[in-house]
Task: inverse folding
């Protein structure tokens, strides 16, 4: 018989969803404001809003329920930080994804002065006095 294992459950533990490019580079799953997913052919646009898909952002209001898809309009309670090119950028909103389980959507702006190319990207959550970062990733900027 298999024995149970103890698993630490943390209030927040952000993780950016990623996909692999044809050249094998892990990039954040990001959608432009026009609905197009960011790829090598459709890069993130400077000065525009985008949505990144993450997990582990913690409690929302109204509450999420375990193993039940998001109902919509469920705002993340904790402050969220998004980093593009190693600096904080404006976060517009952070919500639990409607009709998905364990997925959050964070809307942010890619600054107009961001360089073009494969740019470092990160998401963090304020947990009391601590800032908890997920893994760093890449976004492709035009």
Result:
């Amino acid at each position: 018989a298999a024995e149970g294992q103890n698993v630490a459950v943390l209030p927040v533990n952000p993780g950016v969803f990623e996909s692999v490019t044809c050249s094998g580079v892990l990039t954040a799953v990001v959608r432009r404001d026009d609905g197009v997913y960011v790829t090598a052919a459709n890069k993130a646009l400077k000065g525009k809003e985008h949505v990144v898909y993450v997990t582990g952002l913690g409690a929302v209001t109204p509450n999420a329920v375990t193993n039940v898809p998001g109902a919509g309009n469920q705002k993340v309670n904790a402050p969220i930080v998004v980093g593009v090119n190693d600096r904080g950028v404006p976060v517009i909103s952070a919500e639990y994804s409607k009709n998905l389980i364990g997925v959050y959507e964070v809307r942010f702006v890619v600054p107009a002065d961001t360089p073009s190319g494969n740019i470092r990207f990160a998401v963090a959550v304020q947990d009391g006095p601590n800032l908890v970062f997920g893994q760093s990733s890449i976004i492709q900027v035009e």
User: Anything to note?
Assistant: The longest strand covers residues 117-127. The mean pLDDT is 95. The CA atoms of residues 12 and 63 lie 15 Å apart.
